[in-house]
Amino acid sequence: MGLHITEQQQLEQLYHTIKNTTQRFLGYPVSKDFDYSELMPFLQFPLNNLGDPFSESTYQVDSRTMEREVVNFFAKLFRAHEDQIWGYVTNGGSEGNLYGLYVARELYPKGMVYFSEATHYSIQKNVALLNIDYVIIKSLPNGEVDYNDLKKTIGFNRHRPAIVVANIGTTMTEAKDNTKKIKSILENMAIKKHYIHADAALAGGFAPFVTPRPKFDFEDGIDSISISGHKFIGSPMPSGVVIVKKDNRDRIARRIAYIGSSDATITGSRNGHTPLFLWYAIKKIGLEGFKKRTEHSLAVASYTENKLNGLGIDAWRNPNAITIVFPAPSKKVINKWQLATEKRQSHIICMPNVPYTQIDEFIADIESEMCVV
Ligand SMILES: *Cc1c(COP(=O)(O)O)cnc(C)c1O
Q1: Which residue from 238, 167, 246 is spatially nearest to 207, judged by alpha carbons?
Q2: How many whole angstroms from 200 Cα to the centroid of ligand 1?
Q3: Full-model pTM
Q4: 323 C-alpha to center of ligand 1: Å?
């Protein structure tokens, strides 16, 4: 039995709407320049990477071999040795944040979580889910954590283990917290029980290719990191990667085994297609491709910032950021280009798929409104 004619029309309608809305998309960190058509035959199989990708499963309709490669690829980019880490492909950055904080809480059940006011809402939700105490730290005007306020606040709670969430690219201004600096604050205060989780949803995809390299990875003091797969890399469905230190994972796994479950991941059944898509993307893009995408995004970002400044608009961006922040334009422009807007500030994110011509078109829209006034 096929679809009813009205249902078929509904499908077509949806297809056209999506095709149209995906055209002008400057405000969200989602790459669209992908082609996964070679993987279409895999959509006929019920792939499921049930549980831990690093242990054997009797469910073999899976892509766990590829998933392990994806995890190890990012571990290397984040300067960790593959023997010392564990991870898996998640549903997105938020799940990776939940997992990182979960590991931290299992290690330090009496820990206090610190994160800045510019932090993504998934962190607040996750600390609520995990029922951990937290304190919100001030941000600097650029969106980076206020290190002095962080130090002072940790000082009030010296008797408790410290769990710090570092933003590697905040949602609004793409500010990157310096994890090396955070680590030294914790060490200088002699807080031995500490944990740093990096929320690198967008910027984790290109930070390793930026010079000077931001301080954000395992060599810079982190204990876990979460990135999104559908942001800088781009994929038809949301995905992400979480990487934690193997020692920490093994310690909590033993505790979990003790209470009668050896389940290591947040969900039991897991998407088996997304690891395959990510594997395919990193193989096709390659390290050179990642570098090129990064350079393109940075060049377009610089171009956009200059163009806006040229119109007398107070646009700015953080060092080596692909996000440009500027006073919110008219509702019409915000809607047309789907610009995320908060506290009367909008931003454009120059994802690898954004061409100069699209920026020119956007600038022309802004300019024509200025003429009307
Ligand atoms: C997008 C984003 C997230 C959430 O990632 P999802 O993949 O949407 O779950 C978390 N933190 C930051 C900073 C983000 O930009």
Answers
A1: 167
A2: 8
A3: 0.96
A4: 15
Beta strands 341-342 and 345-349, pairing class: antiparallel
What confidence score (pLDDT) does residue 23 get?
Answer: 81
Take atom 6 of ligand 1 and give the residue whose Cα is closest: 93
Q: What phi-psi label fits residue 338: left (phi over 0), alpha (psi between -120 and 50 degrees) or beta?
A: left
Q: What is the DSSP string of 212-247?
A: SPPS-SGGGT-SEEEEESTTTT--SS--EEEEEEHH
Does residue 347 line the site of ligand 1, with CB under 6 A? no
120 CA → ligand 1 middle, Å: 7
Q: How far is CA 273 from CA 41, 88, 201, in A?
A: 11, 13, 20
- Ligand 1: centre distance to CA 151 (Å): 26
With a 6 Å cutoff on the Cβ, whether 224 touches ligand 1 is: no
Q: Is 223 in the pocket of ligand 1 (CB under 6 A)?
A: no
CATH 3.40.640.10 maps onto the chain at 39-282
Contact 320, 79 (CB under 8 A): no
Predicted local confidence at residue 178, as pLDDT: 98
Mutate to test the pocket of ligand 1, among 28, 115, 122 (most ligand atoms within 8 A of CB): 122
Environment class of 279 (CB within 10 Å of its CB; exposed 0-12, middle 13-18, buried 19+): buried
Q: What pLDDT digit, counting tens, does each position of 241-283 carry?
A: 999 999 999 888 776 665 555 568 899 899 999 999 999 999 9
155 CA from centroid of ligand 1 (Å) = 29
Domain 23-32+287-372 indexed as CATH 3.40.50.300: no
Q: Measured in angstroms, how far is the CA atom of residue 170 from the centroid of ligand 1?
A: 9
Chain centroid to Cα 191, Å, comes to 28
Domain with CATH 3.90.1150.10 in the chain: 23-32+287-372
Query: 3.40.50.10700, 1.10.1200.10, 3.90.1150.10, 3.40.640.10: which CATH number matches 39-282?
Result: 3.40.640.10
- CA distances (Å), origin 20, targets 13, 16, 35, 57, 349: 11, 6, 18, 42, 19
Using a 10 angstrom Cβ sphere, with 0-12 exposed, 13-18 middle and 19 or more buried, the burial of residue 244 is: buried
Which ligand 1 atom is at minimum distance from the Cα of 92? 7
